[in-house]
Write a structure and sequence with these properties.
Layout: H1 8-28, H2 34-46, H3 66-85, E1 88-98, E2 102-107, E3 110-123, E4 139-145, E5 152-157, H4 159-170, E6 173-180, E7 184-189, E8 194-198, E9 204-207, E10 210-213, E11 223-230, E12 236-242, E13 267-278, E14 283-288, E15 291-296, E16 302-305, E17 308-310, E18 320-327, E19 333-341
Parallel strand pairs: 3-5, 9-12, 15-19, 16-19
Antiparallel strand pairs: 1-2, 1-4, 2-3, 4-5, 6-7, 6-11, 7-8, 9-10, 11-12, 13-14, 13-18, 14-15, 16-17, 18-19
């Protein structure tokens, strides 16, 4: 950053901000070194959405004061670092139970409880859908954020729609323009389905009769080919749209993916209070340090009540417990030994 011409006050704010930023990042367990700044630079270069320029003199956007700058920059840095550490997995399974704001999926032979959020997306019949279209027993594919307790449901779809969506996100698509506005380009694809691409100022529009074109130059009914890219929001950004055929990209062999840290260790012990029993699912919910966790057990799980051998049926709500667990690749917490206490422990 060029600091020429900055006043003493501006430089002092910058110095103090850097010190505070290092402290917060150290507390958060995030290394504030070249890696983070390289990541920020990389995101800045590749992001399809431009940020408004800052005021060079005061180092702040005209709408923000000096204090707001410090808060905004800190949130941006922490947010990018958190995004880089997010872990998601795609699972195939069956809907076993639908609750008000969560679901229990059966993945393989084990239940997986997932919480829904405001941004959870549902797909069915090769289009976006409402949650209530899904029923218990439906076979589904789901994208799960596993580095959260409980795991978070990012999106869910039937198998046919999942394959269709995956193909659109990875391969160029042929279709005709159905609608264009300031945020989206909607195409009617060659298979008859309709898909909405997120368009920005960085979307490349290549037209034979117009060397420098934008999405506003696209006409309804125009025959085009489109290439998308999945954003962290799960919008599909329109990277390129052209009126000439587009070849499918050559697939690259994925490199080794570094293991990300989890909120809970891969195995360990937990103590707390049982708050709910879901015996048909072989699950129970607990409170551990003000956090709700979903615990799964099986026929190999050992139960003890006040030090004596017991069974899963001996569990009761509001009982205190201590358990030994391990986590599987889907983020489930699998209990291997559960100690139950009929009376509160001192």
């Amino acid at each position: 950053m060029n600091v020429n011409g900055l006043g003493t006050g501006d430089r002092e704010i910058g110095r103090r901000f850097t010190i505070e930023l290092h402290k917060v990042m150290k507390i958060s367990g995030i290394q504030l070194g070249g890696r983070v700044f390289r990541l920020i630079a990389k995101v800045r270069q590749s992001s399809p959405i431009r940020l408004a320029p800052v005021n060079k003199r005061s180092l702040v956007h005209p709408l923000f004061g000096k204090f707001s700058l410090r808060v905004a920059f800190l949130c941006l840095t922490v947010g990018i670092a958190s995004l880089a550490g997010a872990e998601t997995k795609i699972v195939e399974g069956t809907i076993a139970q639908i609750n008000e704001k969560s679901m229990i999926l059966t993945v393989g032979t084990q239940p997986l409880a997932v919480e829904e959020g405001f941004e959870t997306r549902f797909w069915s019949g090769k289009s976006e859908a409402k949650r209530d279209i899904f029923k218990v027993g439906d076979r589904i594919f789901a994208r799960i954020k596993t580095d959260a307790d409980p795991p978070q449901l990012r999106e869910l779809a039937d198998k046919t729609t999942w394959d269709w969506l995956d193909h659109i996100r990875k391969e160029p698509q042929e279709g005709t323009v159905e609608k264009v506005d300031d945020k989206f380009v909607i195409l009617k694809l060659s298979d008859g389905s309709t898909f909405k691409y997120r368009a920005t100022a960085k979307t490349q529009v290549q037209l034979k009769d117009k060397p420098t074109a934008s999405t506003t130059d696209l006409a309804v009914g125009q025959h085009v080919w489109a290439k998308g890219r999945t954003l962290p929001t799960l919008d599909t950004w329109l990277v390129t749209v052209t009126d000439t055929p587009m070849a499918a990209p050559i697939r690259k062999t994925p490199g080794h993916k570094r293991e990300k840290s989890k909120p809970l260790a891969a195995s360990g012990k937990l103590t707390g209070t049982i708050i709910a029993l879901l015996k048909p699912m072989k699950m129970f919910d607990v409170i551990v340090e003000l956090k709700t966790l979903h615990i799964t057990y099986d026929i190999d799980t050992k139960f003890y009540l006040d030090g004596k051998a017991a069974f899963a049926d001996d569990m009761r709500r509001n009982m205190e417990f201590s358990l030994t667990y391990r986590r599987d690749k889907f983020g489930r917490i699998l209990a291997s030994k559960v100690e139950l206490f009929s009376r509160p422990r001192t």
